[in-house]
# Entry
Amino acid sequence: MQNKSFNRLKLALSGAALLAASQIATAEVIVLDFEGVGDGANINDFYDGGTDSLGNSGVDYDIAFGTNTLGVIDADAGGTGNFANEPSSDTIMYFLTGTAVLNYLPGFDTGFSFFYTSSTAASVFVYDGLNATGNLLATLNLSAQHTDNCSGDPSGTFCNWTAVGASFAGTAMSVDFGGTVNQTGYDDITFGSGTAGGEKPVDVPAPMGLAFMALGLGLGLRNRKPKT
# Structure
């Protein structure tokens, strides 16, 4: 009888070990490169399983942008963007009024990063509440660098891109992208990594209980002149 009970216990622990192994989580890194967002289109819920203002369909990351946040395509690719050397393909994010705010409904942790180009100094703020509210988790300061050390793609005034990122404790729910309207652009916005463009996902250990059981931007439009 004792042997049967012992065998059942071994079987239960083996099953728990398999369950624990299957529940080792992989931290997800999400990169928004804005490809597919139309030229001059409001991004809206393009990354929330919806469409931009031109009807282009996006993917469902539960990420929503404010209505003043726009996509713009490099003029070399048939768009109206006055930029060059963008870090990925041909589309970036910018804004023409206020600041650009995004909400990440499930929340994200570990880190946040992106590439930017700007003719003015700016700051980006990461919050643990929606709509840029709650506790400030991280601040990323941007410098005016849009024409520094440009090479390669010669067409476009905003030709220098800089990667910035920050790690933080807690869970972030929203980001407020600062800058001067039509003078600051963003690309490859990355959640879950302090390195712009992302890193390979990192294995996260199983919970302790299971482990124990297992043992324009002058940029936006070419006919818009940067502010002086």
In short: Helices lie at 2-22, 208-214. The CA atoms of residues 64 and 205 lie 30 Å apart. The radius of gyration is 22 Å.
